[in-house]
Amino acid sequence: MLYLYINVDTPSSQSTQQAKKITGKVVDATGEPIIGASVLVKGTGTGTVTNVDGGFSVDAQLGSTLVISFVGYTSAEVKVGAGNVYTVTLKEDAQTLNEVVVTAMGIKKEKKALGYAVSDINSEELLKNKNTNVINSLAGKVPGVNITQSSGAAGAGASIIIRGGNSTSEGRENQPLFVVDGIIYDNSTQVVGNSGTDGMTRSNTTYSNRVMDINPEDIETMSILKGAAAAALYGSRAADGAIIITTKKGAEGSVKVDFSSKLSSSWATKLPEVQTEFGRGYYSNNGVLDDLTYLSWGERIAAGTQLYDNIGDFFQNGAVWDNNVSISGGTKNSSFFLSASNYDQTGIVPKTGYNKTTVRFNGEQKYGRLTVGANVSYSIADTDKTLTSAGLYDGGGNGTMTALYSWPQTEDMSKYLNEDGSKYRLFDGRLDLASDKENPYWIINKNKLSDNTKRFTGAANASFKIADWWDVSARVGYDQYTTEAYTYIAPGSVAKEMYQNGRLNKSDYTYNYISTNVMSNFHKTFGDFDLNLLVGTTTESTERHNQTHWGYDFITAGTISFNNI
User: Fold this and answer.
1) Can you tell me the distance from the alpha carbon of 271 to that of 520, in angstroms, rounded to the nearest whole number?
2) Which domains, from first to last, does the chain contain?
């Protein structure tokens, strides 16, 4: 019997080497153990975390690399050699621990030294989901902050609540205080006019919140200070927290030009389902069919009857053109930033839209220990809107959405005029005008609602560094805007009898705010102790003016003027 033995000896490779057990300990610069540090074999899914003594145990091959990391520390890498036991020292991440945020009165402090919660959002994060309303850009990005947009209409405002509402008072909106470059910035949502004269309420049309006047492209950082203690220097106005906005400045170096342009589109995709089995009418309790109604619970629709997609045909594709340009630059002792933007939005409801133009300049100059700076911004915002869910208060009528979703599918809603140009009514001669339902096409084509807001904000500041630990600063700020609102209800509209010959309203609301402050700030370190002392004074002046001109019963139809009333 013959036996044949074949022995093949191949050299070992890194991929076929058997892993060995590596143990060790992770400590900080003082030798204290770091609990919960991550220990990962680089390039693999193998890893572990350190225990209460900072120890770890992991299987790794000779020549592999261990990556050790922990929040607040700089990651370290260790090459696995012949040894089986390793001690790794992690260094504190100075950039993380010494992160500086802007707090009340524009004061900069290290985040670790604050006694309250602060969330910081930079420009890059804000522009990832850019919205003309910077409040909407915060949605889902800051813990403990709730964002509610009033509607999807062009120019619609939004509200922001930090850590829930603090008051159930009807006049309290629970909104945080907004501060832009050290100046308190009004963010109210004003109903220009009032229900007692022009019939305006929050429920019958679209209103903007005024922080929309800021161009999101101009924002460098936003600091959300949570809770009353976060903004004690602002008093009770900041009881619901504060949002500190710092705008962009120029940097040392060559002049930089940035330009961006964006085109986006929107449309209604999820429309309410409507039944198409029964026609207009309803059966009363005694079983009698009544067709003097917009309800669609009458007889079954006969085969071949034309049906109209009134809801789908009403909405249009909306579009947004967003254009921005900025120029910035600076030297060792000076800097400047100049920007301009235009945001033009067409709503998905015909005849609605929002157009905003902004201009901003920020400049700073240093003269030895003295630093002076100034910033100015100007914006114009126009909103074309319509009555939405309700008519004017105590004036009768209805909004577009109320009628749109209930209009019978057997009737062509787009027919709102007769061939001679007079108004077409489904129940003309059978139903009083005051008791009728207004056609949405009449509302958007005949009735006109709009508002225009012009805003100017500016500030000048100076600071003098007396010593490395002592500086004195002064600032004066100005915030002013005027909103002009226009409402026209055409003759022949569904309204109370007194308003059926037309109604006209022109209102304006003016806001003026002037503030000054002088501060002396001491900051000195004694060993492991930091001493901060702030002494200052501030003055503020706020003025609000609101006036409304209104009238009804035009003498001559078609002449839109107070002289015709």
Assistant:
1) 60
2) 17-95 (2.60.40.1120), 97-246 (2.170.130.10), 269-313+408-437 (no CATH)
